[in-house]
């Protein structure tokens, strides 16, 4: 919950968001871990992306996942590079963040690629990405995970 509140506080404390192109994405993530049982799971996520032109962007992301071994909350900041193709917008991302769960808390890093497709032009996007995530928030050792994220994006702000 504290990561969710931190995300919202950062958004509300920055008045420039209302004057700039940004979008909110809500979705589902599926996690497949390496090693011990109990490292597979999934849950909800949302992010707020601020675009800097057609290519660059930064995302503030909150994820809550449920695993056999317990639940985990995570907050990350992602740098996104997008190729502004007309039909779809493929992207590459690198993220750093913190995770907090029943097994402990610690740092995490992710790298991935994905794409955005307009479902309703200028109003609704489908987003999907695949990531490799290294999460040190486990008492039994670090996790190396594959993460599939699928969501619906809603463009907001001035375009």
Can you describe what's shown?
With 159 residues, the chain is mainly beta. The protein contains 1 helix and 8 strands, in the order H-E-E-E-E-E-E-E-E. The chain has an 8-stranded antiparallel β-barrel with strand order 1-2-3-4-5-6-7-8. Strand 6 and strand 7 form a beta hairpin. The longest helix has 11 residues, at 2-12. 32% of the residues are buried. The mean pLDDT is 81.
Q: How is the biggest beta sheet arranged? A: 8 strands, antiparallel, barrel
**In total, how many beta strands?**
8
Chain oligomer state: single chain
Number of helices: 1
pLDDT < 50 stretches:
none
Provide the structure class: mainly beta
Helix content: under 10%
Give the N-to-C terminal Cα separation: 32 Å
Shape by Cα distribution: elongated
Task: Specify Rg, calculated over alpha carbons.
Answer: 16 Å
Q: From N to C, what is the helix and strand string?
A: HEEEEEEEE
Mean pLDDT value: 81
Feature tags:
single chain, elongated, 1 helix, 7% helix, mainly beta, 8-stranded antiparallel β-barrel, 159 residues
Question: What is the compact description of this entry?
Answer:
This protein is mainly beta. The chain has one helix at 2-12, and strands at 22-33, 41-52, 56-67, 70-82, 88-101, 104-120, 124-135, 143-156.
């Amino acid at each position: 919950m504290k990561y969710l509140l931190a995300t919202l506080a950062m958004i509300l404390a920055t008045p420039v968001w209302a004057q700039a192109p940004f979008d909110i994405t809500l979705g589902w993530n599926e996690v497949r871990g390496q090693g011990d049982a109990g490292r597979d799971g999934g849950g909800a996520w949302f992010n707020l992306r601020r675009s800097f032109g057609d290519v660059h962007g930064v995302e503030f992301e909150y994820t809550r996942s449920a695993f056999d071994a317990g639940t985990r909350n995570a907050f990350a900041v992602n740098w996104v590079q997008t190729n502004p193709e007309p039909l779809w917008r493929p992207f590459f991302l690198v993220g750093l963040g913190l995770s907090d769960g029943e097994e402990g808390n610690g740092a995490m890093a992710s790298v991935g690629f994905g794409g955005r497709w307009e479902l309703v032009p200028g109003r609704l996007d489908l987003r999907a990405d695949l990531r490799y995530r290294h999460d040190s928030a486990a008492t039994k050792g670090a996790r190396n995970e594959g993460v599939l994220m699928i969501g619906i994006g809603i463009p907001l702000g001035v375009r």
